[in-house]
Fold this sequence. Notes:
The structure holds 2 protein chains of 2 kinds. Chain A is α+β, with helices and mostly antiparallel strands. In chain A, a hairpin with a 5-residue loop joins β15 and β16. In chain A, α6 packs across α9, α17 packs antiparallel against α24 and α18 crosses α22. Chain A is flat, with a radius of gyration of 37 Å. By secondary structure, chain B is of the alpha+beta class. In chain B, 59% of the residues lie in helices and 15% in strands. A 3-stranded antiparallel sheet of chain B has the order 1-3-2. In chain B, a hairpin with a 5-residue loop joins β2 and β3. In chain B, α1 packs across α2 and α1 crosses α4. The radius of gyration of chain B is 15 Å and the shape is globular. The interface between A and B is medium-sized, with 25 and 22 residues.
Amino acid sequence: MLARALRRxxxxxxxxxxxxxxxxxxxxxxxxxxxxxxxxxxxRLREQSADVWGLRWLDDLWRDLRHAARQLRRTxxxxxxxxxxxxxGIGANTTxxxxxxTVFFAELPVPSPEALRQFEWAGHRDxxxxxxxxxxxxxxxxxxxxxxxxxxxxxxxRGDREEPVxxxxxxGEFFRTFGPAMAAGRPLTxxxxxxEAPPVSAISYELWQRxxxxxxSAIGSVITIDDVPVTIVGVMRRGFTTSVGRRLPDVLLPTTxxxxxxxxxxxxxxxxxxxxxxxxADRPEExxxxxxxxxxxxxGLTLPIDRxxxxxxxxxxxxxxxxxxxxxxxxxxxxxxRGLANDLPQIAGTMFLLLSVxxxxxxxxxxxxxxxxxxxxxxxxxxxxxxxxxxxxxxxLLTEGAMLSALAGVVGVLLSWxxxxxxxxxAAPFALDLTALAATAAICAVATLSFALVPALTATRGxxxxxxxxxxxxxxGRARSAPGASLVALQVVISCILLAVAxxxxxxxxxxxxxxxVEPERLLLVDVNPGRDxxxxxxxxxxxxxxxxxxxxxxxxxxxxxxxxxxxEDAEGxxxxxxxxWLWGISPGYFATTRLPLLRGREFTGLDSGAAGxxxxxxxxxxxxxxxxxxxVGRRLPxxxxxxxxxTVTSGSLTIVGVAVDDRGSAAIYLPYAQLAPDGTMRxxxxxxxxxxxxxxxxxxxxxxxxxxxMRESAPGVTVGAMETEAERKGRGSRAVRMLTAxxxxxxxxxxxxxxxxxxxxxxxxxxxxTAEIGVRIVLGARTSDVVRLVVRQxxxxxxxxxxxxxxxxxxxxxxxxxxxxxxxxxxxxxxxIAALITLVMLSAFAVAARPVRRVSRLDPAAALRYE
Amino acid sequence: xxxxxxxxxxxxxLLILRVLNxxxxxxxxxxxxxxxxxxxxxxxxxxxxxxxxxxxLLNGWVKASWAxxxxxxxxxxYRLTPSGRxxxxxxVTDYRRVSQAIAFLLDRA
Lengths: 868, 109
């Protein structure tokens, strides 16, 4: 079999020679014959003989390709338009997919990263090691559970050389959690993580290369980390990391022993770590979550231990957050005005929805091909009449379609590359997503091929004679019904829907990233860590000093981190369904300073202090789920037991004094700072970090100095963090999100542009088709206005129908997307904006389409009659 | 030209291989030899001969090379390859078996 194939290839390569030899051979044969005429037709004989080699299809293919190329060259306008239309679709889709894949869906290079979970307790990811050990020793739902400290600077010593490195401590099951990771040597094991174990470390591949010259002898050698000797037992493989897009520290050390070195800048602080576990496959995640939550609540060991009164502990929520994908590492929302965006994964999911953008270019090209099919009907009919087989014709047309999509694919990839290098090169290196490319190209190819077939199918229908006769001399015949009146309408509908989707998506994303605070660049923020005991008086003191800084308009303070808790009572204080809610402590003036609007009621004042009745401000989401349409101001927000048997807090009931705008979709309760302190009931949320905010009148940068000085003066011992504006802080975290927004808008605009382009094509084709007929009409006395009306009526009717349908559909789309939790709810303003935009875009499309119409009005009847 | 009707399908390959078994021959000579050896009963038309020869080449059963014929012309001669010889044995055995069976059946039925 193989030998046969090889002989075939050999024949193919030497084809010319072989055919000449056959010719000579036959000539010799004829010469030998008594009557050479009996030999038969030499050419036919030669062809029959050569056919044995089974290479005829190749000839045909080559001929088809050349024919297709000739056809496409003959109509450069059509070819360019079709290729470009498809290419833009392919390019945009491929870029969007590549982008989403590299930024959001990149997975950790570890076995089954989808089973990794990180603990998030009441909104906080840091745990004490004691809490970790407690959970670790009692929990059963994890195949492995590890705790990882933050990276810290350390000094690596080797002989008399020293170099700075980054080090992290990991507990015993680290490598069991993340899977095999060693390039050489052995991983750290639970046995290493004991006080009596000899001190060991694992180093990164990069450090091994950099400082040990990739010497195998590095393993087993003793180095010092911050002057404590440790033995290197293993080198991790290249590229191994525990969070997407971030490098692993150079050195990993076991958490435990007192003998192991203390990473320098950690020693002062309470050492905390992040808990990451690998879920066991045979246990539902829910059970594991509940089990861990119960353990943490009961342990009394969670990090904010002394700031966590009994009441709250029963309400603190544990979230097992997925890690191991790019999207899990996208930092969201670290500004002063918060509410966490938990819906990023869903947003990324909707990317797939936008593959439908490709439908529009496909529809456009389909319409073009259909239009062409009609003009080519005569040609095809003539060829059939001359004896072309139908199969052969189909092959030829398919080749043409394939050539179109192939060209479009090449141009599309180029476009994708250009787009990427122009817009996203600093976010991620250009990555051609082959899967997406293949998918888009396949869709395009199928569409192109199926529509390329239309001429063959229509031409072989009906009798040939009438089709050949069917010239354009005033008798348009069946071709008169525009190729896809319904197709055009459908296309317009799809474009409208896509535009609506893109707009809604972009808007939701923008809401995630745009600081809710008004003029965020004038909002100067600084984080301080005053220590728990000082918090109450410190806040008052600092605020009054800040107010006196010239240029500062208003000031406020808020807890830097919220608490994520469960609310389990309904409006009447009865036990109801659990509502997860963020708890924030804020000072008077918070809403004035952020300029976050209050929907109802008032904000906290200096009077809302310890002595007065406890008050709270809730946000719109919570108001909606607790009170529905009833005005919650003045009502009580009682805190009942979450589960039977848990203590209720009688004194803790709060009066709602205001409703804040809900900017992110999660429920939130704001409590006044002054009431957090006195009895300690709500002290938990003060935690230790406080963000001070100063709204300034002029340039925020020039006031950074005076504000910092004021902060220092109010408490000399407290470290004051870096000054930043709200705008800067938001912008940092949301790069990826903004990028995605850009992609959405781009795709939406693209869909629209394509639709407008398609519209132009349709009208222009319509005019071309009917030029002769219009000439007749003019000769017969039709006025210009009549003709224009005719064109407008017949060509634009489907467009208008599509537009109306699309407009009718967009609220439904908005509703569906909201119901699927893909976007936030669209109000009247959004719907109106969508409608306005769609109409505007389509109007501009009409303006473009007016060009061929104008041509009709200036038609010279004599020329039109001869028009072919 | 019903001269070929006597050839059951597939037999042409067998005949060509058989006449090439004893000597190398060019196309015209193959046709002649089959004609002569069959008591002028069988004739191979050029329209079948050359596709058949190409098939033999494709299968690697024969090799072709240029030579000068007895009549002094440049001709292309075909020679059996070892795998062609094997194929010939196979075809002969098959043919014998089938034709015997047919003859047997014709006598008995």
